[in-house]
Amino acid sequence: MPQRVSVLSGDPRLAQLIEFGRQFHARGWVPATGGNFSLRLQPDRIAITRSGVHKGELQPRDFLQVGLNGRLYAGDGKPSYETELHLMLYRRDGRIGCVLHTHSVANTVLSRRRPTIDLRGYEVMKVFPDVDDPERPLQLPVFANDQSMPQLAVRIDAGLRERDPGAFLLAGHGLYAWGADPGRARDRVEALELMLECELWTEGPVP
Ligand SMILES: [Zn+2]
User: Fold this and answer.
1) Cβ-contact 98, 13 below 8 angstroms
2) What's the mean pLDDT in 76-92?
3) Which residues have a Cβ under 8 Å from the Cβ of 194 and sit 6 or more positions away?
4) Angle of the 182-203 helix axis to the 105-113 helix axis, nearest 10
5) 99 C-alpha to center of ligand 1: Å?
6) 102-131 tens-digit pLDDT
7) Which of 84, 114, 123, 177 could bond 149 through an S-S bridge, CB–CB 3.0 to 4.6 Å?
8) For residue 142, which of 108, 119, 168, 167 has the smallest C-alpha distance?
9) What domains does the chain contain, in order, with CATH numbers?
10) Helices 12-26 and 182-203, interaxial angle, to 10°?
11) What separation in Å is there between the alpha carbon of 7 and the centre of ligand 1?
């Protein structure tokens, strides 16, 4: 049986994710319980926000422990609906230590308009490990959204085998970005949200 008491309270990374929730909510990136956050606890186990919890008001008990096989090990409630996407990312790359998902205005609007998003000429692109020249485009894949998480996970896994810039978008839905630790994943989300907002401002309002 899963334990009802969080065994993660002493992990300083949990406090980081709780703080990111407050910051992201203040910026309008995780409205109305949207988004979800996870981190790797052990090679084959993660902590992930539970379903339906407001990201601006996270508590240690809002994180559940889930194995990479999908089994719930500890915590109260249901893991996030999109847990399967997080598990796919942790399974495909052992270096990933944290995955963050946001639903901002900029990432929602642009992912509905463009089949891929090429970001170019932004100084902030340097937080991505493969970008040493801001004039070379950072190509962000956009995948069609799907309510079947297992099917979506298979499709994204295949797409990332072709190109894996450390982040992707789901059309009309949101942004996923990851890193070796919470700080690096947060830096990527902040960089991408800045660039997507700049792209949206450059395009102007919908005609
Ligand atoms: Zn979502």
Assistant:
1) yes
2) 93
3) 122, 124
4) 60
5) 12
6) 999 999 999 999 999 999 999 999 888 777
7) 84
8) 168
9) 12-203 (3.40.225.10)
10) 10
11) 26
Q: Is 201 left (phi over 0), alpha (psi -120 to 50) or beta?
A: alpha
Q: pTM of the prediction?
A: 0.93
Q: How far is the CA of 135 from the centre of ligand 1 (A)?
A: 30
**pLDDT of the residue at 2:** 52
**At 190, phi and psi to the nearest 5?**
-65, -40
Residue 29 is given by DSSP the state S
Distance (angstroms) between ligand 1 centre and the Cα of 130 equals 26
* Alpha-carbon span 71 to 84, nearest angstrom: 11
Encoded tokens for 19: 């703080």
Lowest average pLDDT, out of 3-7, 20-24, 94-98, goes to 3-7
- Cα 87 from Cα 172, distance rounded (Å): 22
